[in-house]
Amino acid sequence: MKGVVGMVVSNKMQKSVVVAVDRLFHHKIYNRFVKRTSKFMAHDELDQCNIGDRVRLDPSRPLSKRKRWIVAEILKRARIYQPPSPPPTAAAAAAAASRVKA
């Protein structure tokens, strides 16, 4: 078996991630390229993967019932959206200043 590249779709487990791997193949009857997605559970020893990360998986011995892959490397980190914090209001700034003086 060779390594595959996919996108992390779930990291809710401890030291495990679910990776979606897309593949294209040519359909002989339809004469079109068809996209199929497979989901693999993979072992993430350091718990570093986040949803949206692009990772490379290597095959390994069976680690559990469904886990037969190991995250070899994180190829590209996902950009995690953080909403901008609202500017402090005058009342909040005055309360913070009064706490500092006391």
TrEMBL record:
<dbReference type="GO" id="GO:0005840">
    <property type="term" value="C:ribosome"/>
</dbReference>
<dbReference type="GO" id="GO:1990904">
    <property type="term" value="C:ribonucleoprotein complex"/>
</dbReference>
<feature type="compositionally biased region" description="Low complexity">
    <location>
        <begin position="90"/>
        <end position="102"/>
    </location>
</feature>
<dbReference type="InterPro" id="IPR019984">
    <property type="entry name" value="Ribosomal_uS17_bact/chlr"/>
</dbReference>
<dbReference type="GO" id="GO:0019843">
    <property type="term" value="F:rRNA binding"/>
</dbReference>
<comment type="function">
    <text>One of the primary rRNA binding proteins, it binds specifically to the 5'-end of 16S ribosomal RNA.</text>
</comment>
<keyword id="KW-0689">Ribosomal protein</keyword>
<comment type="similarity">
    <text>Belongs to the universal ribosomal protein uS17 family.</text>
</comment>
<dbReference type="InterPro" id="IPR000266">
    <property type="entry name" value="Ribosomal_uS17"/>
</dbReference>
<dbReference type="InterPro" id="IPR012340">
    <property type="entry name" value="NA-bd_OB-fold"/>
</dbReference>
<dbReference type="Pfam" id="PF00366">
    <property type="entry name" value="Ribosomal_S17"/>
</dbReference>
<protein>
    <recommendedName>
        <fullName>Small ribosomal subunit protein uS17c</fullName>
    </recommendedName>
</protein>
<keyword id="KW-0699">rRNA-binding</keyword>
<keyword id="KW-0694">RNA-binding</keyword>
<feature type="region of interest" description="Disordered">
    <location>
        <begin position="83"/>
        <end position="102"/>
    </location>
</feature>
<keyword id="KW-0687">Ribonucleoprotein</keyword>
